[in-house]
């Protein structure tokens, strides 16, 4: 069950975080200073699941992590109450396939059988969030993968560094429910091979610290419509940007969130700059 929860959470974060931007120079690690901060805090863009061959944990990230007093993820992986909420979110509270047209049902059945070895009856017992998680997992493109969130969590525990979350699991689940209609689910599950190819490109871009390209790839209109972007990306970014200043005043903080949340006019880098902070790339 523990592994299933970890898989579910990682996948949800992956889907929820898609964006687009033009930030130069390129880096996945950014330093936050100014506006009364006595010590810098850091913003690190993660990719929630990455093939082991593409996994890198750079020395600059370790240094920034060690300088920080507290680690923040999108959600708090160290809170038992949040883990329990994740468990609740795996199963469906009602049928999400009943109102699909016959054509959409046939399309869904074909995709489930072809890519997931699953029947529509089995899928109907799972929440839409869990189905999106299956898409993410299937699209990683490898059997051996790593998670930056899980690795950072292990590192924090080994060094007795406290952890927190920028939002509650319930809020994240609500964002997914509001964003994805049953028709959206059918469309995306049917495009599993295309999403797998896209994620392979995104992993290469991430390994090269090409933040802009990661955002552009994950902003593909086949998987990110305006409503999904508004609720799952822009709205959450604003909520986090409003919360981060108080957290930085309390502790020197290391914020680790999906890389696509960093970039763009409504990304965390620009939102924090608008609040008066200096946000600069850490290049080495």
Biggest beta-sheet profile: 6 strands, mixed
Cα gyration radius (Å): 18 Å
| Strand residue percentage | 5-15%
Strand order of the largest sheet: 6-4-7-2-1-8
Q: What coarse outline follows from CA principal-axis ratios?
A: globular
Question: First CA to last CA: what distance?
Answer: 39 Å
| Number of DSSP strand runs | 8
Low-confidence stretches: 1-7, 15-23
Helix content: 40-55%
Number of domains: 1
Mean pLDDT rating:
89
Individual helix count: 13
Protein name: TraB family protein
InterPro entries: TraB/PrgY/GumN_fam (IPR002816), YbaP-like (IPR047111)
Organism: Siphonobacter aquaeclarae
Pfam families: TraB_PrgY_gumN
Q: What report would you give on this structure?
A:
By secondary structure, this protein is an alpha/beta fold. The chain has one domain (2-281). It is built from 13 helices and 8 strands. The strands form 2 sheets. A 6-stranded mixed beta sheet has the order 6-4-7-2-1-8, sandwiched between helices. Helix 10 (192-207) runs antiparallel to helix 11. The longest helix has 25 residues, at 226-250. It is globular, with a radius of gyration of 18 Å. The termini are far apart. InterPro entries: TraB/PrgY/GumN_fam (IPR002816), YbaP-like (IPR047111). It comes from Siphonobacter aquaeclarae. It holds the Pfam family TraB_PrgY_gumN. This is TraB family protein.
């Amino acid at each position: 069950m523990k592994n299933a929860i970890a898989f579910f959470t990682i996948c949800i974060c992956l889907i929820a975080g898609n964006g687009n931007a033009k930030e130069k120079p390129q880096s996945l690690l950014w330093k936050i200073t100014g506006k009364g901060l006595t010590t810098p805090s850091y913003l690190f863009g993660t990719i929630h699941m990455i093939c082991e061959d593409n996994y890198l944990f750079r020395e600059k990230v370790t240094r920034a992590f060690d300088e920080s007093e507290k680690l923040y993820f999108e959600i708090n992986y160290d809170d038992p109450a949040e883990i329990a909420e994740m468990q609740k979110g795996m199963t469906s509270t009602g049928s999400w396939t009943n109102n699909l047209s016959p054509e959409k049902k046939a399309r869904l059945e074909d995709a489930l059988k072809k890519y997931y070895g699953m029947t529509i009856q089995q899928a109907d017992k799972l929440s839409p969030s869990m189905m999106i998680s299956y898409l993410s997992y299937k699209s990683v493109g490898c059997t051996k993968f790593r998670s930056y969130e899980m690795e950072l969590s292990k590192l924090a525990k080994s060094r007795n560094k406290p952890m927190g979350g920028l939002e509650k699991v319930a809020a994240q689940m609500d964002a997914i429910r509001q964003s994805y209609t049953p028709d959206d689910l059918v469309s995306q599950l049917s495009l599993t091979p295309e999403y797998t190819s896209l994620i392979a490109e995104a992993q290469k871009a991430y390994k090269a610290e090409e933040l802009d390209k990661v955002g552009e790839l994950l902003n593909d209109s086949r998987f990110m419509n305006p409503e999904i972007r508004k609720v799952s990306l822009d709205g959450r970014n604003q909520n986090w940007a409003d919360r981060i200043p108080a957290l930085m005043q309390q502790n020197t903080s290391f914020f680790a969130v999906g890389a696509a949340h960093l970039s763009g006019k409504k990304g965390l880098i620009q939102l924090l700059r608008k609040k008066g902070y200096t946000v600069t790339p850490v290049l080495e």
